[in-house]
Amino acid sequence: MNKNQWLSGRVLFFVSLVAKLTIIVGYPLLAGAFDIRAVFKNDSQFFSVLFDGDVASSTVATTSVMTLNAGTPSVFGLFSAMDNSRMVYGQATSGVISIGDTLTASSSIRDTSTNANGTVTAQTILPAISIATVRGGLGSNNLDEFLMIYNNMNAVYTASGTLYLHSISGANVDRVVPLVFTTSSIPDHGFFLISSGIGYSGSVQSDAYYVTSTDLFATSSATIYINTTSTPRVNIIDKIEWGTSAKITTSTNATSTFANTLATTTLVNGTVLVRKAGTASTATTMASGGSEANKGYSYNIRSNSADFVLLNTSQTPVIKNSASPKEFPFGGGQSDTTSPTVIGSFPAGMDGEMVPTDLNFIGFSFSEPVNPSTVGTTTVSLVVQGQNTNLCSSVTYSNMSNFGPPGQCNIPSGT
Question: What is the pTM of this model?
Answer without folding.
Answer: 0.73
